[in-house]
Specification:
single chain, 284 residues, Arc Repressor Mutant, subunit A, 5-stranded mixed β-sheet, 3-stranded antiparallel β-sheet
Amino acid sequence: MILHIVFGQSSAAQLKAAFELDPNLEGDVLVFEDDLSVGPLFILDTPDGRRARREWWTAMSAAVTAAPAGTEAPQEETEPAPPEEDVDPVRSLKARLREEEEVTVWIWAGQNAADVCGYYWLVSQLDRFSGRIHLIYLNNLPFLNEKNAVFYPTHLHQILPKEFLKAKKLAREVSLAEFELDGDEWRRLMNENAGVRLLEGGKKIRGEAASFYDKDLLQQAGAEFVKAWKVISQTAAKYKYPVQDHFLNWRLKELVKDGQLESRGELKTARDYEVKIPAAAANA
């Protein structure tokens, strides 16, 4: 039996649709939602580390607590807060693998930092199940889109269900060397504890400060008010690999909070408010 692991519900939907085309691909699908390409990772394998990460997600999901003069009072974000209790999401997976020895794991990863960080996180904890853990990494591989044109997807949800039948041929067993080296890479990422993790190609991850995108967000804002979603989309378009909209939305709010931007509207989703450079800074 195959246990498929993906990172994000949108990827799960496309994979499940492929089961109807190939019964041999069918299996259970386990979805991990946490985007490990952003936020704290330090000692994430402990209750204290998981609590620190939950607190960060709560802070990021909340609106700016105090609006600068001249802006409307912000309201809470619509994104749900993470659970309060301490949950080790891999514990039940390992328990199942111990109990059901016939189960093999297929980890699906697109060419993006969230999936690659998720892979590192998992493989660092599954070494005792060597021989049963497989990776399907869509690393700079061509696929066909709805118009039958070749493209290079960064995320699984961009692939048509029929293309999963081709992708499954990429499944390969994670080697003993990879368990060791990629486990070490995960521990490096935890100890580095960067605010943002970027994919540089292959499986190479580079850490940067949480403020990494701030300069680009400021460049996209002008002397007149512009919709936050437009600032975010123009900033994201500058990068080869995808940038999370919710993270950029949080950074915009932090720039408002710090007085580097002025806002108009409710500081909720990126479609609810506008931003501009303060007059004094624009005239400097």
